[in-house]
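Below is how a single chain appears once it has passed through the pipeline. First comes the sequence as given, then the structure the pipeline wrote out for it. We keep one example in the README because the format questions we get most often are answered faster by looking than by reading.
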Amino acid sequence: MSLIEAIILGIVQGIAEFLPISSSGHLAIFKKIFGLSDVGLTYDILLHAGTLVAVFIVYWSDIWKLIKEGIGIIIDACKNIGRFCNGKVKKGEAEYITVIGTSYRRFVMLVIVSTIPTGIIGLVFKKVFNLDNPSIIIPGIGLLITGLILFIVDDLPAGSKTPKKMSYKDAVIIGISQGVATLPGISRSGTTLTVGVLRGLDRKFAIKYSFIMSIPAILGACVLDIKDLFAPENAISGKEMAYYFTGAVVAAVVGFVCIKTLILLYKNKKMKYFSYYCFVVGIIAIVANFVG
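Resulting structure:
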């Protein structure tokens, strides 16, 4: 991989990961264009790390609160276990702490609940489909599905659910939609945003939830792949590593800009523009698969 190719793929990742046009679909198409059957596991992990940095920068205040409240949940749960054990020993009534007592603690639990079906579906799809190097027709069909999803989201009625009102059933359904978006061409952000609004989430919270719930999903995918990094076939030179880091930095910078852009366009109900784009690229990809 050349430096130019690393930068271009970094730009594609940063744009397509957060704008609702599918990063996996576009990366598959661009790999085909460049003749890159495999860009390397290390580069894939670094690209995802770069996009995670963008999410952390945009939502750092919320993420920090979620981290603190997540630690608080563990501490209070341990205290309750201690009180339960102490009550059993002393044969008395234990006074328990309310563990999920704040909006952010519920937010933490909702994200955890969403992550479970995402992880299960992602693992199943990875075994059933060749997601690392799919035929170009797969992302093409996926982009058409994404186009349909985005076509309806602007016209959906506004919901009012925030963490306090959102149910765990809502979290499971949104998590399932994120898992389905593992398929190349189906936009993760577009799918989870649309399903979130369909479940009655407040639009501002829906987009925040979509981005924040992507963190454990992306981290989990990276962790599963790390074990293969040290295999001989994944060995890379220092020059290649420099190119990879450059691509990751580009993905982070472009991703930051795209998150801000999507928030603005989503707020102003301009998602149909992405829908038209996905229809066009999807059709081109399908035609190119048979012509090429």
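Residues 60-90 form the longest helix (31 residues).

See the next section for the split statistics.
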